[in-house]
Amino acid sequence: MNNFIKNRNNMFKNHIKIAWRNLWKIKSYSIINIIGLCIGMTAVLIIGIWVQNQLQFDNFYSDKENIYKVLNKNRNDEGKISLQEYTSGQASPALIADYPEVERAARIYWSISKLLSFGDKKIKSKGNEVDPAFIQMFDFKLLKGNNNKALGETRNIILTESLAKSIFGEKDPLDQTIILDNKEPYKVSAIMQDLPGNTNFDFTYLIPLVNAEGYSPNWNTIAFTTYIQLKKGTNVDAFNNKLIDIIKKKTNSELGGSLFLYPISKMHLYSKFEQGIPVGGKIDQVKLVTGIGLLILLIACINFINLSTARSQKRAKEVAIRKVVGAQRFNLIAQFLTESLLLAIISGTLAITLAILTLPLFNTIFDKPLVLALSDPTIWLALIGFIFLTGILAGLYPAFVLSGFKPIKSLKIFRSSKKIALNFRELLVIFQFGVAIILIIATIVVRRQIEYAGQRDVGYTTSQLIEIGMEGDMGKNYEAIKSELLNNGIATAVTRSGSSITSNAGSAWGGFSWEGSTPEQGKKMGFNLGRTESDLIKTLGLKLIAGRDIDYARLAADSSAVLLNEAAIKEMNLKNPVGTYLKWGSTTYTIVGVINDYISGSPYNPVTPMLIYATKKSLYNLIIRTNPGSSVQDQLKQIEQIIKKFNPAYPFEYQFVDQKFAGKFKDQQQTARLAFIFSGLAIFISCLGLFGLASYIAELRTKEIGIRKVLGASVSGITTMLSKDFIKLVIISIVLASPIAWWAMNKWLQDFSYRIEIQWWIFALAGAAAVLVAFVTVSSQAIRAANHNPVKTLRDE
């Protein structure tokens, strides 16, 4: 037994020694394989870190199986079902009161940035108003304080650890008093661990929700994100059936809406619905990116397979001698697998280093603080397993091919160009370039879709527009601020609105009626909502189709005035809307103007009906159209002086509307950058393998090239001879990859209502780029071989 183990150890050492000698002997091919595998493994490592982060999104709560997000489910007369993530403020108390299956219910009001003051320290930070049950439902870790009492009083506040340190330093924050928005005192009741990077919640402090009625007074006004925790063992499908008519019962009307529970653990990845059924979402991107990463690794493994099998003639004598002296096929397979594993270990070590170095770059693309946790033993086990799996994947086929080699047969690399069938090595080259071409086409299509949406008419002039949050004393000093901005020539127009003009402030469905409407029309009619006081059209630069702007600042009668957009007029089938009434619930409004359709939501979707109503309350957004006659920096300094004059306690913060609108393309730009990087990697690795194959074939045909030169062949003729077989493979890959790329990108574009048509020139451009790169790669080796002195190449070995 001891001798057997000793022999096995000696054999293993011998395999490693021979493997190292072989890799060192053919350094150029080893370097090509190491670089290719290293890049492929790096891509998979980085993607794996990102995928792990995505799969754990909101998936770490102790009772995650029973926590659900409450969605609004609406069905119109045509049977189309839509889901909204916001609910009425009435939903949460009704669910907890009427349904014994509900253990907890909690509402969240939108994230709001407020000024937190403690002595001389003043910090603006984003927080949420929540029901007390929220902190118990999601069991965020409290470093100090009590879960059950943290939000028990209306003036309690929970701070995250980082915010507490920013305000108090090393001082104990518990029971200290913080002033919110320079007027409301709150007592610090708990300190929470900072939120992890893989959650959709975004806050640094929490305060109790005390004004739910003011935010959402009835069932058809939606303003909250609502979560419920069901008791263990509750059948969620049966519970959803109970909620079908809840809104109808509570309102005694035919609103047609219902509530629907959806697991919070699935909300991040499976948030796309069709007809009320989840059909995908972020998970599609996760699958796509994972697949691309694995394809890039596979391309790198193909390089190893191709170069290993191509060199089979060189290793024929080695295999023959080993077999003659009694080597079994198993021993030969073990030897060749040892070589591939050694190569994978070297590549994997370099890949880990490269992943650590490039991770900050990918963090800017993924917009997530991803880290490779090398201190975790399970990570090392996964890395070791990944390296060995890659080595076996790359080396298994060459090991079986080379170990079965029969010395009496000559294995040709490329047969006559007249042959019809393709050998396995050629198929692998076609596959490599096919993947690269698909990624090039995807990069072009994604980039063109972003540019197409970016060139879409927004409906107003985004340049020279600045938004500033209305906070502190800005509300009571609004008229004075507006007057100084206009009188000093800093602004040409000023207004205020309920929210940013680049986003939808909310929506309302059902309960509407107007001149000539039917009950059915009123039941299914829905509007995106906007709020303003005066001068909205002038400030935004909207086109007035009919009527006039709202002017509640100077006309008291405009307290019931509304503006509608063209999409609303078309949906309502109104011919002469100005001066007619619009009834919403028990309130009657007068339509004073019709404006053009402008984009407030996604630039990829059609504009939907919008209703903008007059009010002097809940106007949180100051909009300034600056004077184009002076520099932006001078204007910002002057605006800051005026704002600080009337609101000295708050820091001056602003946003350019054109930059906010550009942020709507963030997800698609992320996809475009990833497609560009991965297509570049795929082309590079494929060309690396092509370079190795071309150089090796040129080496095998050295004497043939010498004879041809002696007989008068030109350098260009020899270059063409050596290059044409490779270029033929690239052209085949273009033909095969183009329809696949068309199908994939056409499916991707279906998610956008406003989208491009895929043009033929995209495929021509991608194909030409692939052919050009492949030709340059191969011809560089072909020209080098053709320029060799035939006297030297024809010498006997």
UniProtKB/TrEMBL annotation:
<feature type="transmembrane region" description="Helical">
    <location>
        <begin position="726"/>
        <end position="746"/>
    </location>
</feature>
<dbReference type="InterPro" id="IPR003838">
    <property type="entry name" value="ABC3_permease_C"/>
</dbReference>
<feature type="domain" description="MacB-like periplasmic core">
    <location>
        <begin position="511"/>
        <end position="641"/>
    </location>
</feature>
<dbReference type="Pfam" id="PF02687">
    <property type="entry name" value="FtsX"/>
</dbReference>
<feature type="domain" description="ABC3 transporter permease C-terminal">
    <location>
        <begin position="292"/>
        <end position="403"/>
    </location>
</feature>
<dbReference type="Pfam" id="PF12704">
    <property type="entry name" value="MacB_PCD"/>
</dbReference>
<feature type="domain" description="ABC3 transporter permease C-terminal">
    <location>
        <begin position="676"/>
        <end position="790"/>
    </location>
</feature>
<keyword id="KW-0472">Membrane</keyword>
<feature type="transmembrane region" description="Helical">
    <location>
        <begin position="379"/>
        <end position="405"/>
    </location>
</feature>
<feature type="transmembrane region" description="Helical">
    <location>
        <begin position="426"/>
        <end position="446"/>
    </location>
</feature>
<feature type="transmembrane region" description="Helical">
    <location>
        <begin position="288"/>
        <end position="309"/>
    </location>
</feature>
<feature type="domain" description="MacB-like periplasmic core">
    <location>
        <begin position="30"/>
        <end position="244"/>
    </location>
</feature>
<keyword id="KW-0812">Transmembrane</keyword>
<keyword id="KW-1003">Cell membrane</keyword>
<dbReference type="InterPro" id="IPR025857">
    <property type="entry name" value="MacB_PCD"/>
</dbReference>
<feature type="transmembrane region" description="Helical">
    <location>
        <begin position="758"/>
        <end position="778"/>
    </location>
</feature>
<dbReference type="InterPro" id="IPR050250">
    <property type="entry name" value="Macrolide_Exporter_MacB"/>
</dbReference>
<feature type="transmembrane region" description="Helical">
    <location>
        <begin position="330"/>
        <end position="359"/>
    </location>
</feature>
<feature type="transmembrane region" description="Helical">
    <location>
        <begin position="31"/>
        <end position="51"/>
    </location>
</feature>
<protein>
    <submittedName>
        <fullName>ABC transporter permease</fullName>
    </submittedName>
</protein>
<keyword id="KW-1133">Transmembrane helix</keyword>
<feature type="transmembrane region" description="Helical">
    <location>
        <begin position="674"/>
        <end position="698"/>
    </location>
</feature>
